[in-house]
Amino acid sequence: MDNKNVFVAIALSMSVLLFWGAFVDTPKPKSQNQINKNIDTKDLAKNEITPNINPEKLITKVSRKDALVKDDRILIENKKIQGSISLKGAIFDDLSFKNYKKKLDSDEKVIFLNPKETGDGYFIETGWTSLGNKVNVPNIETIWSVKGKRTLEENGTVILEWNNGQGIIFKKIISLDDKYLFKVKQEVKNNSKEIIELYPYAQIIRNKKPEDVQGFYILHEGFIGVFDGELKEDSYEDIKEKKISREAINGWLGITDKYWVTAVVPSKDESFKSTFLFKDTYKANYIHNSPVKINSSSSSSNEVRVFVAAKEVDTVDGYAESEGIEKFDLTIDWGWFYFFTKPLFFVIDYLFKLSGNFGIAIVLITLAIRIIFFPLANYSFRSMAKMKALQPEMVRLKELHKEDKVKLQQEMMALYKKEKINPASGCLPILIQIPFFFAIYKMLFISLEMRHQPFFGWIQDLSAKDPTSLFNLFGLIPWDPPGFLVIGIWPILMGLTMYLQQKLNPAPADPIQAKIFAFFPLFLTIILAPFPSGLVVYWTVNNILTIAQQWVIMRKTKIKTN
Q1: Which of 118, 110, 112, 102 is closest to 63 using CA atoms?
Q2: Which spans in 113-266 are helix H?
Q3: Given 18, 157, 415, 537, which is the most exposed site by the fewest CB atoms within 10 A?
Q4: Which residues contact 342 (CB under 8 A, 6 or more apart)?
Q5: How far apart are CA 73 and CA 55, in angstroms?
Q6: In whole angstroms, what is the distance from residue 435 CA to residue 338 CA?
Q7: Do residue 366 and residue 507 come from a single domain?
Q8: What is the distance, to the nearest Å, from the Cα of residue 450 to the centroid of all Cα atoms in its chain?
Q9: Listed residues 333, 353, 368: the one ending a domain
Q10: CA nearest to 225, candidates 217, 233, 214
Q11: Range of the domain at 60
Q12: Tell me, what CATH number does 178's domain have?
């Protein structure tokens, strides 16, 4: 891909990113009532439900350590996660990923879920609610008792129980697989003399927006769900502006980060209403539209699946297939070019396992893409080489006919015809390559598998920017420059390769355009310096391969103009 075409690609790409939303009409969800206020459905006959989901009261913020020792807990652990479940509310509010470190140079694991009393509280609750609070149901303040084991291990279960004092016994049977899936079977035994009706619900609550949200349009972080096969994504800003409610029969919902996700999946083939809202805290929840009716001296149950997962492609895909959860693989933001992005991931993942180095895998997949597009690139480069060879003749014609634009145009067209050159021929290859440009950029940007992976030398984390800086002479001066001055060795190499590419291409006829293009390598070096070094390595290697291919073609291309 020649430098000029790269600029065209970037311009087109940015245009698509910036203006897609303005020109594509997306359906707006209808405004509905909050789940913890008034919920209207056909089954409820517009009666009021007041679920005991999140008590509206000021919670004193405490440290995570103090919050964890405040209440009795059940320990949870398998080969992927560890943490605990609070017996107060039976909520999932303490979980960390055993295989992922918070920082490259630290042994501290990624802590994901936190108790509600902490500033960054993040937890998941499951339960029942009743119409008009006729039944005393457990809530977030309820103290559950443990029946049997007090540790939830891989492929094991724990049983929690609570008696409401009205002859109704609530039970939770919680199981954990070998990765990230909890199954919560909620049983209700009605020993009273009345027929009761209860509505199952689940909700994810996050006290605040995470500080490390990327804020890039190319990556969605925030609320996510699939409702009857349709993917919906809403940002934190969207939810702050207004609550968003949807109804479906099948689906799932949750909150997604760049590398991690929480999700709850209602029972299959059960109509439910989902609500994303902000009121002091961010909430993603659902409630069944139809009640579960439980006769006297009988029992009933409901199951909800809870995911607290690292977005590993094989794991997420496995859950989508084994659990029959439609489009659950879209918890990973593959983007518009899903059909390119995901296959490219499998290729680079194979190369990573083959080479043992993710950076080498990036080099190999770049080489493979160059080989695939070799014929197109050759066609484009031959055209550009001919155009460059014609530059002196074109300058002569402009001087000769500078007062006659019509004559100049006729002479230029005659020259193109004589030399069999199409000036626009270089555009077709780049248009074909744009989806791949986006796909590999997207794939490398979102890939958890690239996180904390080393390359060579000073690049110890391909998902982070190059840590060196020109402004402290790459570490020779004992000074840490501010972030905007951290322009490392790899971004500089990328800028130099762009400059060399530019020199191989025909200069724009307009002197002003020529000056603007001359500054592009410097401009892009500054702009792209903060990007993950894995992306910069890809662009640099791609530029080097392009330069080599273009130089060979230009050496072979000769045009006579006299």
Answers
A1: 118
A2: 236-241
A3: 18
A4: 313, 334, 443
A5: 21
A6: 10
A7: yes
A8: 14
A9: 333
A10: 233
A11: 30-333
A12: 2.70.98.90
Q: Are residues 222 and 283 in the same domain?
A: yes
CA atoms within 13 A on the CB side of 126: 26
Residues found in the chain: 562
DSSP codes of every residue in 8-36 = HHHHHHHHHHHHHHHHS-PPPPPP---TT
The pLDDT tens digits of the residues spanning 196-254 come to 999 999 999 999 999 888 777 789 999 999 999 999 999 999 999 999 999 999 999 99
pTM above 0.70, yes or no: yes
Q: Residue 212 has what pLDDT?
A: 81
**Residue 152 pairs with which residues in a beta bridge?**
76
Lookup result for tokens 């969605």: 220
Which of 286, 312, 333 is at the close of a domain?
A: 333
The residue with greater pLDDT, 144 or 105, is 144
Pairing of strands 109-113, 281-288: unpaired
Neighbouring residues of 213: CB distance < 8 A, sequence distance ≥ 6: 221, 236, 257
562 pLDDT above the threshold of 60: no
Given a cut of 70, is residue 131 above it in pLDDT? Answer: yes
* 281-316 b/e (C-beta count within 10 Å ≥ 16 → b): ebbbbbbbbebbebeeeeebebbbbbbbbbbbbebb
CA pair distance 475, 395, nearest whole angstrom: 47
Domain shared by 137 and 196, yes or no: yes
In a domain, 253, yes or no: yes
Same-domain check for residues 214 and 348: no
Structural domain count of the chain = 2
CA–CA separation, 161 vs 138, rounded Å? 10
Residue type, 484: F
Whether residue 20 lies inside any domain: the answer is no
